[in-house]
Amino acid sequence: MNKFDIARALDEISDYLELSEANHFKAVAFERAANSIRGLDREPADLIASGSLLETPGIGKATAAIIEELVRTGESKYAEELRGQYPPGIFELMRVPKLGLKKIGVLYESLGIGSLDELEEAARAGRLAALKGFGPKTEQSILSGIEKARRRESHFLLPVGVEVGEQIREHLAAIQEIEDAEVSGSVRRRLEVIRNVNIVIATRAQEPVVRALESFVERIERIDENTVKAFARNEIEVWFHFAKPDAFGATLLVTTGSQQFVESFLARGGKLGRARTEKELFDKSGLVWVDPERRETGDDLVRKRHKRLVEVSDLRGTFHVHTTFSDGRHTMKEMLAAARERGFDYVGISDHSPAAFYARGLTVERLRDQQKEIAVQEKAVAPMRVFRGTEADILPDGSIDYDAKTLAKFDFVIASIHSRFTMTKDEMTERMLRALDNPHVTMLGHLTGRKLLTRDGYTVEYERIFEKAAANGVMIEINGNPNRLDLDWRYIRRALDLGVTFTINPDAHSTHEYNALISGTWVARKAGLTAKEIFNTKPVEEVAEYLESRRANAQPAK
User: Is the pTM of this model over 0.85?
Assistant: First the structure.
């Protein structure tokens, strides 16, 4: 098993443990171990061979034993034991909005519910309302959520598709008959929600390759002479597209799509002849190269020169970082040290404000303690700059959840909505517009509040919000959390045209979640943004000067 397979197995164990309240701390330990393994630049087998597995941060004796067993046998007896305690479909309940692992555990322990059908039957019979932590409103919400869950069946978040695709490519690399293999389809175009994974394989001998697939995918089915369908992890549909090496480029282009892009490519004189790479096809056709993320339409084919899109390596720092002072999983010291290790020039700490009581939002008194801790820890990460900020709630009336005196102490303020999502479109728009008029607000966080596959975003008048943000110099966040990816890439170009500036933020609650800058960059690339259009690609001196200037302008005249 490679590091991705092992991380997946550890995540599964963590999920099963989280179902039981008594096992919460063990669940966190396995989650940390999974994140640690996933972030390694070596394979776990190498660490075991060198005797250094236990020296890896996040790995303890218990998790190390499981990892060693997985490397040695490909299985975990502990995982099998946990699977045997619950019905096989229990995790499908997570597709229902407002149902986390804790509540799913309660449902199973109290009512024996382990599937969507059983959940729907119990909700319609009124048996959920009496459970602790539920109630009549939650019961009705779950009923409507079940309908959404069924509509979204067999849909997955983009990072799942990326991970599955890369895992399969690693397996394919060991097959002698394969000359090249690339992920294509919606995963390569970086759509935020995917239904399947497509992989193009260059080979002169299909049948040995198809036989070899049996060792790492299931339910293999021949569709036509050049296409095989299978399943990874017993749930994710994978399509294998076979091509001779000299047709690899054309097959990659066609299966990457979109259909509209391919039709535009052909309409502009593009040809799908022999080519080992896509680049050959573009060059032979006299068309400018279009990055896969920009292939939903053929609009970029009219360009005379290739536009260099922003890359994660362009980001010099980040904002929207939480610590254990609010709902983060790692301490101030750990979050800053991890940022420094990643080579950031600056990082903006932004724990929650008091209204986010569920996230241990900081009162003014606790804010003082947090600021003292930043002062202590920033010396250890110098010369990296630490900016003091907050993710302050936009209250229902549009005011910001700290008084002006407190807001004036921050280097930056991210204003976000975390409550009253059911307000009407007009009410929500006015709420945001009033927040944008607050001179202390620097950034607007996760604008629509959506949670992909679980919660639709609230509706607002985007045009008015973009115009106000641009007029007041408030940046709009591209939240890279894979569950959010908010602002939606479909709206970014219009915001840019109206003068909005963007910042790519991870919304990091753990050191591992700095990786959300990668998925945030996917969104920016899909919208066609360059490094110049992203605030946190700027050098630290320019960032500090801008924040200080904005902070000074927010102060009342004396």
Answer: no
